[in-house]
Every structure is written in structure tokens, then in C-alpha cells.
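Our preliminary data section would be incomplete without showing what the modeling component actually yields. Below, a chain of 203 amino acids is followed by its predicted structure, encoded as C-alpha cells that our downstream tools consume directly.
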Amino acid sequence: MRLALIERPYSIQPTKERGRLMTRAAREERKSRVIEVLNKARAMELHAIGQYMNQHYGLDDMDFGELAAQMKLIAIDEMRHAEKFAERVKELGGEPVTLAASAVETGQEMEVIFAFDTELEDDGIAAYNEFRTECEDCGDSVSVKLFDDIINDEQAHFNYFDSVDAHIKKLGAAYLAQKAGTSSATGLNTQGFVARRSGGAPV
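Predicted structure:
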């Protein structure tokens, strides 16, 4: 008795098609990794915005207007950073996070504020360099450039905070007396700290 052979279509896709699917899957996996670090960075920026604006209100209340104004301008920079990270996340098909990475530290004394912020910026720069490397490993040159630009801004913030902290520790009341009673007004110009200080204004 002869058995009839039943032909069935192959379920295995051609090699070229499988390769294309694998490439697409790898690309999506890399994109997901980039979105993850962009959102981590955005969460850090959201924390910085809240932290610096809280300090701005405190410094203004203590009548250190000039220091309060600079703090507000730095917060504006961080707002722009958060927006840029969100825009890049959306470009990649992700959803920007809305929660800050940490809770805001409130009620800080003058002697604490700028040392705290120096460390915050230092930690941020270290994290962003790691995130940049991740983007580079994933072949995302646009996100690499974004981190490069923002790291430069954060370095300017670090330099300012570190300089003010050093002045307070070295000169104490004499330095603070120069800042007391000054205006906290930043005007109608929407430029942040880095854009305004590109001309090299003194601390």
C-alpha cells in the first residue's frame, strides 16, 4: 500500500527575511535602551528643577537676591534640558516620564545650599557621561550630541556652584554681605544661566 505524501508549506522563512526581522528586533532593542537612559536623565532634570526653584525661593526670602536670581536661571536651563530629553524620547516612539528622580530637599541653610548643588551637578555629569556611552553603543548619534550639549551646560552649573561655595567657605559673612539686599529680578528675557553668562560675567 502506497502512502500519499502531503506537501505542506514551509513554516521557516527565507534566510534573508529572518535576517531582516532580527535586524529590526535588534534596532528596536537598542532604541528601547536609549529611551530608558533619556528618561532617567529627564527624571534627574525634573528633580533639579524642583530643587533649584525651592532654593531660589529660600534665597530670595533670605534677601540674597542676586544668588536667588542665578538659581532661577539655572532652573530655567534644567527646564530646557527636561524638554529636550522629552522631545527626543517622543521622536524615538517612547513616552517621557513625569516623575522626578528624587524628592526635593527643603529648608536648607545658606552654608548647605551650594555645596549640595555642587555635588548634585557632579553626580549628574557622571551619570550623563554613562548615558552618553550607552547611546553611543546603540549607534544613536543624535542622542549622543544631545548629551554632549547638556553635559557642557551642567559643567557650567557645577563651576558656578563650586565657586560660590568656595567664596562662602573662604570669605563667609563678607562675601554674603555683598549679595545681601540685591535684586532677584531676572527680567523678561527668557534666556537661562548658560546663555546669559556666555560673555563671561563674574561670579
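The helical segments are 15-61, 65-91, 110-137, 141-171, 173-179, 193-196. The first helix runs from residue 15 to 61. Preliminary results of this kind motivate Aim 1 of the renewal.
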